[in-house]
From TrEMBL, chain A:
Superkingdom as given in the UniProt entry: Bacteria
Region of interest called Disordered, as start-end residue ranges on this chain: 1-27
Name of the protein in its database record: Carbohydrate ABC transporter permease
Protein's cellular compartments: Cell membrane
Coiled-coil regions listed in the entry: none
Signal peptide positions on this chain: none
Gene3D superfamilies referenced in this protein's UniProt entry, alphabetically: MetI-like
ABC transmembrane type-1 domain residues: 109-310
Length: 325, 327
């Protein structure tokens, strides 16, 4: 993808230098070299400073993770005595052993995985099912529907009226409340619609001539051609559900239905380790700090596993969105 | 098959004329056209139902801001009270505090979080070492994909009073006992720090894309004219991304009062309430936890209306200043 990686300056310099060196075509390479050295001093200072700043930024981004990962494998004593480390003296699994032995954690993990899988399927299906008809320019009423959708991107009912609707539908404390109220992201819908519009018309025509119904055209022609964007939106939506904290906070009242994000918050922010784990073994003190580190790691790992895919697709999505809105 | 023949079979070219039918119907009746698309409409139903139920019904639900909403009477049955809740809001001692907290956070975002991606993008753009550029980019994008819960957790782990790594460090440097998490003075710096950490890297994408579109010839011409790197940046790179900056600024203004519910909520505790309460979290506390539906809807509506005025206002201003606006 060229767009997120602007043409390298190095290429730029080489090109122009060669251009300038047209009269001296025998040794263009040497010319470039000398030019580069000559521009030094201030340039070199700037470059080194720039590199230092950027590497510093990268470190600031990454160090907290390394600390948390190291802490999750360290013993309780080490976490409390060593101020900062990214490599534990001794690797122990006690934090992980502990949280994986508690029902509350396991339940929240299973709930989160389940809701993410089902919710993503529902959201992708609903988005695509709606995007396809709207991609057909000749559909009567299409513009009206599109405008009504775009309006929801500017204005919404807000937290309380939405809550009351969810409540009226009997979805409070129901897992469906974690994905249905956000089933279609208007922004993704518009991107998907634009994508369908770009698909070659001829294939669809041919299918129709062969007696395919509209539904058949969609499932047999359009969907197979849309695999990349299908995968992209599945990732979009899955990350959204996995990371969502507001919906479970608003709509889920019984702790037994909590998602991982709610659990993480309870353990780390409220420091309510005992309550959540419900351990009543007086002889054994749970590794209170270690648990915090381990829960953060487990809630983050899936995102980091998918990160290479995410980065690629999301960047593209952002750009498509910004260009075509 | 010729193009004309294909065109004949297109649904929008009217009824495919049967041999004995006169070829008049330039205008097929709407009902017939819609019947032709019945499958497409069928596919639209779930999505349409979604927008009606979860987007438009809540908009209608805003009417309860002008009612004394009683759950068993519903949106339609509850008694109307006009602007009573708005008057109550403006008269309430909370209002000034909420407004101040919200605006201060918005201002801090505008000053720190808005320019940060632009600066980082400019720095990245100057990097000639592709390996370095790629790896820095990949690393600083990561936090964007983490939930606010994780960001808050990391903050708590790093800044906790006795055990936090950064607290340790600060204590040993300044010889004081820092209490970042409950001292109200540290609330805003922490919020800004979180935002910078989470979104700066991701924000660079759009600016890097804009920078990639700059015509190489401009740089070449500038170099021939003797422009050094700083002058190239000032006279070519910055003007080139000006329209992107303006659009991002307009978008930011629209969200000025959106303090970010999850982030603020997760960082709020009983000790920093005074500086932490913003419109978003206030709506939650008053509405969901205390059940004052009508009043909190009025608060939310006030916020939304101000936001819309701001976005249209800044758009108007951008156009007056000779920039391309958003609409």
């Amino acid at each position: 993808m060229t767009t997120s990686d602007p043409a390298p300056r190095s290429a730029r310099t080489t090109e122009t230098s060669t251009g300038l060196a047209i009269g001296d075509q025998r040794k263009p390479q040497q010319k470039i070299k000398s030019r580069r050295i000559r521009r030094s001093v201030s340039g070199t200072i700037f470059d080194s400073l720039n590199y230092l700043i950027l590497i510093g930024l990268a470190l600031i981004t990454v160090l907290p993770f390394l600390y948390v990962i190291a802490g999750s494998f360290a013993g309780e004593a080490e976490i409390t005595s060593r101020p900062f480390f990214i490599w534990p003296h001794k690797f122990v699994m006690s934090s992980y052993n502990y949280i994986f032995s508690t029902n509350a954690f396991l339940r929240s993990l299973i709930v989160t995985i389940g809701v993410t899988v089902v919710g993503t399927a529902v959201q992708v299906a609903m988005t695509f099912l709606m995007a396809y008809p709207l991609s057909r320019r000749e559909l009567p009423g299409r513009n009206l529907i599109l405008n009504l959708i775009i309006f929801t991107m500017v204005f919404g009912g807000g937290m309380i009226p939405t809550f009351l609707i969810v409540k009226a539908l009997g979805l409070l404390d129901n897992y469906a409340a974690l994905f249905l109220p956000a089933a279609i992201n208007a922004f993704y819908l518009v991107i998907a619609k634009n994508f369908f519009q770009e698909l070659p018309e001829e294939l669809q025509e041919a299918a129709r001539i062969d007696g395919c119904t509209e539904l058949g055209v969609f499932t047999r022609i359009v969907l197979p051609l849309s695999k990349p964007i299908l995968a992209t939106f599945a990732l979009f939506y899955a990350v959204g559900i996995w990371n969502d904290f507001m919906s479970p906070l608003l709509y889920i009242s019984s702790p037994s239905k909590w998602t991982l994000q709610m659990f993480v918050r309870q353990v780390t922010v409220s420091a309510d380790v005992a309550n959540v784990t419900g351990q009543v073994d007086p002889d054994w003190v749970p590794p209170a700090q270690g648990i915090k580190f381990a829960t953060v790691v487990i809630a983050t790992v899936p995102i980091l596993l998918f990160y290479p895919f995410l980065q690629k697709h999301f960047a593209k999505g952002v750009l498509i969105g910004s260009v075509k809105g | 098959m010729s193009a004309a023949a294909v065109d004949q079979l297109r649904p929008d070219s009217g009824a495919s004329p049967a041999p004995d039918e006169p070829i008049v119907p330039r205008k097929v009746s709407l009902a017939r056209r819609m019947y032709r698309f019945r499958w497409l409409y069928l596919m639209l139903i779930p999505g349409a139902a979604y927008f009606v139920i979860f987007k438009y019904a809540p908009m209608y639900g805003i009417t309860i801001a002008f009612q004394d909403y009683l759950p068993f009477l519903g949106f339609r049955g509850s008694p109307w009270v006009g602007f009573e809740h708005f008057q109550e809001l403006f008269a309430s001692p909370d209002f000034g505090r909420l407004m101040a907290n919200t605006l201060i956070l918005a201002l801090l975002h505008a000053v720190f979080a808005f320019p940060a991606p632009i600066i980082v993008a400019l720095l990245l753009n100057e990097v000639r070492l592709q390996v370095l550029k790629r790896s820095v980019q990949s690393l600083i994008y990561i936090p964007h994909f983490l939930s606010w819960t994780i960001v808050a957790s990391l903050t708590y782990l790093l800044f906790a009073m006795d055990t936090g790594a950064i607290t340790h460090l600060m204590n040993s440097i300044f010889g004081a006992n820092f209490d970042f998490l409950s001292d109200p003075h540290w609330f805003r710096p922490l919020i800004i720090l979180q935002t910078l950490w989470k979104s700066t890297g991701w924000g660079t994408i759009i600016y890097l894309a804009a920078l990639a579109g700059v015509d190489e010839n401009l740089y070449e011409a500038a170099r021939i004219d003797g422009a050094n790197r700083w002058k190239q940046t000032w006279h070519i790179t910055l003007p080139a991304i000006r329209s992107t900056v303006v659009i991002m600024a307009i978008l930011m203004t629209g969200n000025l009062l959106d303090s970010g519910f999850e982030q603020i909520y997760l960082m709020t505790n009983s000790l920093n309430r005074d500086v932490a309460d913003v419109f978003d979290t206030y709506v939650y506390y008053i509405g969901i936890t205390q059940g004052q539906y009508s009043y909190s809807t009025a608060v939310g509506l006030f916020k939304a209306v101000v936001g819309i005025i701001l976005i249209f206002g800044s758009n108007w201003l951008a156009r007056r200043l000779g920039q391309t606006g958003l609409f």
